[in-house]
Amino acid sequence: MRHYFADVFDDCFRYALSQVRRDYPKVQFPDRWPFSPDIDLILSELFW
Question: Which of 7, 8, 36, 46 is the most exposed place for a label (fewest CB within 10 A)?
Answer without folding.
Answer: 46
